Amino acid sequence: MRGGFGLIGPRRERHVVPATDLDVLALPVGDDGVVIGVDAEGRPAVLGVNRPTPYEVTLIGGLWTAQVLALRAAATGARVVVETGRGPVWSGLAQAAGGGQQCVTLHEVGRVPPQGASAGSPVLVIRDCGMRPPRGRVVAGPWQSVLTLLPYLSPTAPRLLQNSSLVGVQRVSPDEAEQIGRLMNLPQPAVDSLPTLGDGVTLWCTGRDRQFVMTQGTDAEHNLLGPARRID
């Protein structure tokens, strides 16, 4: 016995790794957030929605993708608030999410109360308000991100895209693709690909970066939401 130190443990050689072998131990650690699918190389694509700074996201796409994002955000511990004019299409998800905990709440358009988001209780607000969503009462703030879903390109899209930190685009018409390309300064190959994207494929882009991501539902998501689809 050694006073204050307990029993003397077994004598073993130290575990030493040569500096030249350190790369072998490297782990593929990405950003913290929601796994939204895989990129073209099959690597996980992660969307960090829980942030200490305001974060605006616009998704020009289908309900299925927005609902998968809602489920996965809730699984990370975020509270998901859905502002929608079509509550019945969200009610099944709200009841199934959280295993009995009310982690997904539904509100009529324009009636989302203050959420009191914090580092310990982050919030994702999903605005499913149609082609012309009104300005929201609850906006992005610290630990409260806002995702606006547009089924197609609308007259409000330029303002939303300009104010968004991240934009997701799923399959659109050739005319819409050209307009989005001009608004987001996309290269022509990316613009040409937008009308041909498969269900579940999204082009996520910022002012500088862009990445195609394939979202595939898990078994539980497939049972609840059905297969991936662009058109609702």
Descriptive report:
- The structure is a single chain.
- Helices cover about 25% and strands about 20% of the residues.
- It is α/β, with parallel strands linked by helices and about 230 residues long.
- A hairpin with a 4-residue loop joins strand 9 (about 200-205) and strand 10 (about 210-215).
- The radius of gyration is 22 Å and the shape is globular.
- The protein starts with about 35 loop residues before the first strand and ends in a 7-residue tail after the last helix.
Radius of gyration: 22 Å
User: How far is the N terminus from the C terminus?
Assistant: 71 Å
> Treating each run of at least 4 consecutive H or I residues as one helix, how many helices?
6
Which strands sit side by side, in order, in the main sheet? 5-4-6-7-3-8-9-10
Spatial shape: globular
Q: What is the strand tally?
A: 10
Mean pLDDT: 87
Percent of sequence in beta strands: 15-25%
Report low-confidence residues grouped into runs of 5 or more.
24-30
H-E order? EEEHEHEEEHEHHEEH
What fraction, in percent, of the residue positions are helical? 10-25%
Structural class: alpha/beta
Instruction: Summarize the main sheet.
Output: 8 strands, mixed
